[in-house]
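User: Can you write out an input/output pair for a complex, sequences first and structure second?

Assistant: Here is one pair. Inputs:
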Amino acid sequence: MPSSTTLSTPPLTVRLTESRAEVDSCRALRRAVFVDEGGFDLTSENDGVDVRALHLIAITIAQSHGSDGRSSSDLSDPASADQDGDQATPDDSPLPIGTLRIFETLDGNPWVQVGKVAVRRTHRSLGIGRLLMHEAERVIMDRFPQHEAIVLDAVARQAPFYTKMGYVVDAERGVYLKKGAPHVRMSKLLRPV
Ligand SMILES: CC(C)(COP(=O)(O)OP(=O)(O)OC[C@H]1O[C@@H](n2cnc3c(N)ncnc32)[C@H](O)[C@@H]1OP(=O)(O)O)[C@@H](O)C(=O)NCCC(=O)NCCS
């Protein structure tokens, strides 16, 4: 079952994307968060991984039910409407609230990688990042039972968020530059011993 919650935002559902259009809307949110807001180069969004990744999408229940008689802009949280200036996907539907992607590395490592974790700026600190990470873990245990751990490259200043989710910094590797920003490698065992 996908994760759901009721926070001070509209009720949300967090689940795997179900269409190419949903993946595109997740990519639009990532561009807003990492490129427009975070200042990363657009090329970092086109690294070729998306086609082989699973994508989680966090959307309001209203968004997931599609048209309910309101206009598409009404479907986003009223508290957030257009404060970002980044509220539309390529087909003009509202941006998802959050996203992340899950993929296996190509070098045969016994782990699964999570990346591009993004929550809409107007919806942060509401527990949505946590919901995404929990659902990622559930999906990974379901789809990749052969793997031992989840690994991620965290922007160093966000490492405390992942620590709260049970991830541990690879201290031996330390801080390294990726896409021009300090990162740390973090991991979490799927079946702690
Ligand atoms: C990082 C991000 C995904 C967190 O999402 P969020 O929905 O705001 O996080 P949550 O509200 O679920 O936070 C869960 C917990 O982590 C804490 N937390 C979140 N970000 C944190 C940070 N940067 N430093 C310390 N703690 C943090 C919260 O306070 C909360 O703690 P609590 O459970 O004790 O209350 C979001 O801030 C984001 O999209 N940032 C921009 C993109 C980005 O940097 N992505 C990560 C790239 S590695």
